[in-house]
Amino acid sequence: MIKAILIFNNHGKPRLSKFYEHYNEDTEQQIIRETFHLVSKRDENVCNFLEGGMLIGGSDYKLIYRHYATLYFVFCVDSSESELGILDLIQVFVETLDKCFENVCELDLIFHVDKVHNILAEMVMGGMVLETNMNEIITQVDAQNKMEKSEVTSVLA
Amino acid sequence: MEAVNLLSSNKYTEKQIGYLFISVLVNSNSDLISLINNGIKNDLASRNPTFMNLALHCIANVGSREMAEAFASQIPSILVAGDTMDSVKQSAALCLLRLNRTSPDLVPMGEWTARVVHLLNDQHLGVVTAAASLITTLAQKSPEDFKTSISLAVARLSRIVTSASIDLQDYTYYFVAAPWLSVKLLRLLQCYPPPEDAALRSRLTECLETILNKAQEPPKSKKVQHSNAKNAVLFEAIALIIHHDSEPTLLVRACNQLGQFLQHRETNLRYLALESMCTLASSEFSHEAVKTHIDTVINALKTERDVSVRQRAVDLLYAMCDRSNAKQIVAEMLSYLENADYSIREEMVLKVAILAEKYAVDYTWYVDTILNLIRIAGDYVSEEVWYRVIQIVINQDDVQGYAAKTVFEALQAPACHENLVKVGGYILGEFGNLIAGDSRSSPLVQFNLLHSKFHLCSVPTRALLLSAYIKFINLFPEVKATIQDVLRSDSQLRNADVELQQRAIEYLRLSCIASTDILATVLEEMPPFPERESSILAKLKKKKGPGNLPDIDDTRWNVNGSAEHSEDTESTNKSPPSLMADLLPTNRPRPASSSPTLLSAGTMGSSHPFTDLLNLNSTPSAGASLLVDVLSDISTPAPITVSEDNFSRFVCKNNGVIYEDQLLQIGLKAEYRQNLGRIYVFYGNKTSTQFLSFSSSVTSSDTLKTQLNVHAKAVDPTVDGGAQLQQVVNIECLSDFTDAPVLDIQFRYGGTLQKIAVKLPVMLNKFFQPTEMTSQDFFQRWKQLGVPQQEVQTIFKAQHPMDTDVTNAKILGFGVALLIGVDPNPANFVGAGVIHTKNTQVGCLLRLEPNTQAQMYRLTLRTSRESVSQRLCDLLSDQF
User: Per the confidence metrics, is the pTM higher than 0.95?
Assistant: First the structure.
């Protein structure tokens, strides 16, 4: 199961954090900081898996991450997930974001947090992988956007 | 509140924002939850798939117990209903999975389970993926219920693997057919042993072969995603092969495949290959095949830039190590250790120490290795490691001289680690004589060498060194004066540290007043430690969790000897158990001062009075092992058999130790008056850790309940380390009885629940009141009780020396009055008493006739009740 999904930038500023297990706010912040600390000091070219920090559960959990330009995407998962599978899931997530935002960048995540959450919700639900088919995800998201628009226009009209 | 309003809105935008807010910000124990639940309930019933999805998402994301209570019964029906949309089914499956994780007790199993399995056949691959996740989790909990899923999963898998990626809708990811689903299905199959049905089995083997074959095909795309997805499936397939562990050809193929990956330029693959190989190494079929990659792995250890990959390489080396390659692997690990990352050093040290011991062909190599280990990574060598060396050196006679020589040489380095000083001090103190013949390592040189390190060491090490010095005095009388000077110096005698001061003073006195004989006995060489297995392993296990140690026996290993505490004098201190039993205070393995057990053992004829009177830092060897056992923090729960070992010892006395194990000592002190009794039960915690949830109660059999009223007062639920707890048990005897009540004790120690049951020594004779009477009275009553049923007689062989005084004491202890001069034969013992019960009083006469020549006794009891005569006879006849 996925325990947490974190996105932060090269300076450790969190851009999205989603915990599928309950922690109090301070612990969440500490986890983000610890994870950033672990991930950021790794070179490019090293492998994308590492054992989780103490706060998140130590060596029973793995951090699987990818680094895209200015952003780190980190998934914290337990041993029941396939490492490469999660790595691909990150890729799917990013590609989906890219399609939905047309060339996604850090600012999109800041200004459209709700959308990012919606997309994530289509992919991962309660810590389990829900959907991996990019087209399916995009169809769902589009359908939602359409509904949203129709409602907004009906309000305006 | 606003969010809840939004939630109940009919407009999608508002509803969606409401849900989003809740799943991001509301935690599982908010008080709004009942309002939220209401909104969700409406949406679930709405038949609008978008709304239903939102609701299901929300349940899954919050996943609280309240939600599980409210919806756990509803979701299965949504999941298996025929008319549910695919996307809703998908969400429902995962939602159920989530609830099953958070509160499994609330998710009802039922007829829906059978139908869930059939979702594996669903048209929509998304649904199949979600269902596979759900079934995997459920199958882990109750494999029987989901057995049918095996055949479906195999069928599905073979369709995906062999299909020409057309009928898979859009689930082809970078030219790989449905990688996630394949992974999930392979995971599901790992919940079960290989299928029994031959056709199914061959179909699965075929699938696995195809997957392995595909790995050899040229990639269809240069993109990293393609190979990632392909390899995700491949690794999962290999994991399944390893799990089944039944097809040698597949295992070897898997191993070769992993071997290729070991040299792949993609770091991720190297990492995963090392990890999978670790599990592969434990299979008997592939162990040899794995070993062929040893050079690659060692190379990885040296050249890999990534610490997590190197860590895996260490793990793999550890797993593939056996007698044939141990020397090479240990040497490589040692050389790597010199510049290893700090984060993995401690673990590596443990691993090296374990391997060196486990596969040591000769112990000189072992000693060399460990000393090297201490030299290279002294800071990371935990106490267990060096305790273990000492234990092994002491137990292996042939290596002692070599060890002494080697540590002597190692100590000559200008800067050596404190752990080395400890090992050196200990070993030279014990075996320095073995190398003293050489003029380069004469006693004085040895002493000066050790003493040159003294000032740089911490207090515990200094204490150990002082003990080594006193041992030198015994080994080499010629350095006695030098050492006494050192001990006499102000820096020792007036040391601020109590322990050091005490040792210095006591050792000094000992060396001055004791004769050489006494010195030799007190400072005798350490006896071999009882053969126990390594504590290091336990430590590694604790550090890594059980899953990461393939290849090593699973038996819970106990811990090796401690050094410090069993340091010098303990070998001589063996007080007889009965003495210990008479003392109520807990026998705590405490250093120093006034442990009464030690003192009395000393004064009451231990042949080596110095041992105890000095109160050195000594504990009986049982105590030492106990301490270490505490360190290891593993305690196997005691079997719950009722302990009655000491029961019969209490027939003739009221105080003593009734039960003792490594953790707990139970002492008793009892008083009886007429038909009432009171027992003080003392529970002594022998460990340094607190016992939690301590409880003790007294249970009696049904018959006994009508004969004896027992009431135990409640006790504190915690017992601090080293502390004693007292419990009062009140007893009332209603009528005569034979059984005994049982004391049930439960407590938590280091996470494990301990249960102990002890038979309380409450016997009928405790309710005796002695009756003095004249010879005439006695024989008159004796004749009155002449009915055959009232007399019980037994003849038995003496188990103890036939000593009149002891016998007298036992009869008095039994509770009757000892009537002297009553029997015409002065060698016979005669007693009389009355047993008080609430209902009646039973008069009782007894006569014990010893026959010293035959070493036999004849015991005759006459009472007005047959059962009483019988019981008393049984009790008493055990005692002589």
Answer: no
